[in-house]
Amino acid sequence: MLFEGLEQGDLKRLVHTELHIDEFKSKLGKDEDVCVVSFKVRGKEPANDLVNFIEKGYNWVIDADVSSGEMDDGDYIVFVECERDHSIPANIMQMMQDIMNVTDQKLKDWRVRYYKGTEDHSLDTATLKKLIPQSAAEYHKQYGDDDLESMKAAANIKTDKRAPKNDFTESLRIAAGLR
Asked: Rounded to two decimals, what is the model's pTM?
């Protein structure tokens, strides 16, 4: 199979105009360090073409992939993973402007939804700057883990992850060969 690359309009009417950010978990790192951008594409071959286009076109992309199976409506999800840093909004906008060339779409027609939100927003750099935590610290501040240890760490409360010393824990240590 000869791959000649995508040209203007090759994916016309095949890419849905809704971008989702951090809706899915990263497969290559921690969510606090990796941002996952996703969108739906009609058909596996167009989705694979778009993944190829993205992976070869941007050095800031850690990985791009297509969902392993199709959704109920026959569409596939394209996932793009990138490092969570202050260049995310500009990088995403550059990628999306390039995608507009191969889809013959307009950015003004696109909507973006962040994480667990139910509200759609316009797709522009200012909106992305407001929506996306651009560092691990910002991510934890907004969407940190709900477990007690994470809350204690965020409050600068000393945590001790060692089990207490008693007969039961000592017997476990001996059984595990840790003593």
From this structure: 0.75
Buried b (16+ CB within 10 A) or exposed e, 58-89: beebbbbbbbeeeeeeebbbbbbbbebeeebb
Report the distance separating Cα 1 and Cα 177, nearest Å. Answer: 56
* Residue pLDDT, tens place only, 86-145: 999 999 999 999 999 999 999 999 999 998 788 999 999 999 999 999 999 999 888 765
The DSSP call for residue 164 is: P
Structure tokens at 112: 């973006």
How far CA 2 is from CA of 5, 27, 58, in Å, comes to 9, 29, 22
78: β partners: 39, 66
Closest CA to 106 of 118, 122, 120: 122
User: What domains, with CATH codes, occur in the chain?
Assistant: 18-135 (3.30.70), 145-179 (no CATH)
Residue 50, SS3? helix
